[in-house]
Amino acid sequence: MDYASAFENINFLAILFAALSSFVVGGFWYSKSMFLKIWMKETGLTQKDIEKKQGMAQIFTATFLLALVAAYFLAVVLYMVSEPKANWLDGAVFGAVVGMAFVATSQATHVLFERKTLRLFAVQSGHDILRLAVMGAILGAFGS
């Protein structure tokens, strides 16, 4: 495998869309009709905490930059493991597997040592697995 080609053959438009999809998934996942109330209860945040605008620009900027990094490296690794090029389904499965194998297991370790609940683990890990699956689907659809 020519690893340099994985870094050179990246579709930056796909990465941008994949990163933006994190906000769509997060907005859905942490909405009032989904898991917002559970997440707030399990983290100890109140509605007043959520409504604070102070620092939100920095939080959203940092979150977007982190999503770009995640999308970039997901694209690199997807490119490395997919011969021929991945499609949207390959990308979605790959993203979900990465989410389950690496993100959820890491979060589980934190939850155990922080003595947090299984509910918080399920909400946060479920979000990351779905977020990475959607990112992977977008990257795969672009042929990453």
- Biggest sheet descriptor: none
Tally of DSSP helical segments: 7
Oligomeric status? single chain
Total domain count: 1
Number of strands: 0
Radius of gyration: 16 Å
What is the H/E string?
Answer: HHHHHHH
Helical proportion, percent range:
over 70%
Quick check: average pLDDT?
93
Low-confidence stretches: none
Distance between the amino and carboxyl termini: 16 Å
**Envelope shape:** globular
Structural class: mainly alpha
Strand percent estimate: under 5%
In short:
The protein has 144 residues and is an all-alpha fold. 79% of the residues lie in helices and 0% in strands.
Describe the protein's topology.
Elements: H1 3-8, H2 12-29, H3 36-43, H4 47-51, H5 56-81, H6 88-114, H7 118-141
Question: What do these coordinates show?
Answer:
By secondary structure, the chain is an all-alpha fold. The two termini are 16 Å apart. Helices cover 79% and strands 0% of the residues. The protein has helices at 3-8, 12-29, 36-43, 47-51, 56-81, 88-114, 118-141. It has one domain (3-141).
Features:
mainly alpha; 144 residues
